[in-house]
Design brief:
Shape: globular
Number of helices: 4
């Protein structure tokens, strides 16, 4: 992955427009399904943020933001802002850009 390319993309990826709020008492499987929709910003619990931060080493990390991926799946970025936690799965095209496979 090209850290420079992903860094350049972060401002547009982390926009908080149309955030899907976190439902109360959400099941793990429902939360995973919400996160796995490319291009959608979802609010997640702090425990979810911590889980993905700790389960595997981040592919990229800067401050309160990190990129997670298992195997060859597209990156999911997680970040904290104003005491809330968010996640956004990259589309295949965004993932290729972040990895330096196609120009911005």
């Amino acid at each position: 992955m090209s850290a420079t390319t992903l860094s350049a993309m972060l401002p547009s990826l982390m926009k908080l427009e149309g955030v899907v709020p976190q439902p109360e008492n959400e099941k793990w499987s429902d939360m995973i399904a919400r996160i796995n929709v490319p291009g959608r910003v979802v609010e997640v619990a702090g425990e979810t943020y911590d889980y993905f931060l700790e389960v595997l080493p981040p592919r990229f990390m800067r401050g309160w933001m990190f990129a997670f991926a298992e195997g060859e799946e597209p990156l999911t970025i997680f970040w904290q802002k104003d005491c809330k936690f968010y996640a956004r799965r990259l589309s295949d095209q965004e993932h290729d850009q972040a990895c330096g496979r196609v120009p911005l």
